[in-house]
Amino acid sequence: MNGVLEEVDYTIKGFVVPYDLPSENVFFLRPRDGETEDEKKKRENIRDYVRAKRVQATSYLHSLGVLATNSVVLVPASRVEKIDETVKRVREIYEEVNERLAKEGYYKVGMPIIKKIPMVQTQIIGFKELAERQLKEKLDKKIDQIANIIQKIQEGVEEGKAKKIRYNLNRTKKELENLEEIAKELGIETDDQFALLGEMINQAIETLGEM
Q1: Contacts of 168 (CB under 8 A, 6+ apart)
Q2: CB burial readout 13-51, b (16+ within 10 A) else e
Q3: Residue 193 CB: number of other CB atoms within 10 A?
Q4: pLDDT tens across 143-192, in order?
Q5: By C-alpha distance, which of 56, 204, 98, 65 is closest to 142?
Q6: How far apart are CA 57 and CA 51, in angstroms?
Q7: 68: helix, coil or strand?
Q8: With contact defined as beta carbons under 8 Å apart, do 155 and 162 qualify?
Q9: Pairing status of strand 113-114 against strand 12-20
Q10: Is 120 helix (H, G, I), strand (E, B) or coil?
């Protein structure tokens, strides 16, 4: 055989976590003809409950890493234990959901499907490109949101609203710091969007402090 074989690095560099969560869009939770007002209200309440739990479970999964697609999360190798903890938490959420549905006289929506697929460097490259695109789009939207908040602050806000805005800005700042750390671990480029957002959030908080 001619040439020199390149050494392949089989070190796990990250994990791909695809998931499929049962949703509220199931046939037995959809509106029906001939329902009484009480039956309709009960069904709507249960549907809202299942939706809220799905959103909660989704937020836990998304916090693991960076989205590659709407239902695939790219996670750094350093967070492998966090994956197991999150999967357990999400499964517990759906155990609770199914238990309540059965108790209320409905069918169960079933359990989530969540996979933890280890990736070496060569495998992770394709997912990294997808994740980079998704993250940049997300940060662009966040920049627009913070810009709108700054404009509203400059126009003037009440003291009660100012406290809530300050709380939300500080929470967003922590979330972005965590996301930036994950992106760095995965080698994802973000064109200084994190730095810009940090400056904008600090500006908004400082402006609130002057009011």
Answers
A1: none
A2: bbbbbebebbebebeebeeeeeeeeeeeeebeebbebbe
A3: 19
A4: 999 999 998 888 877 777 888 888 999 999 999 999 999 999 998 988 89
A5: 204
A6: 10
A7: strand
A8: no
A9: antiparallel
A10: strand
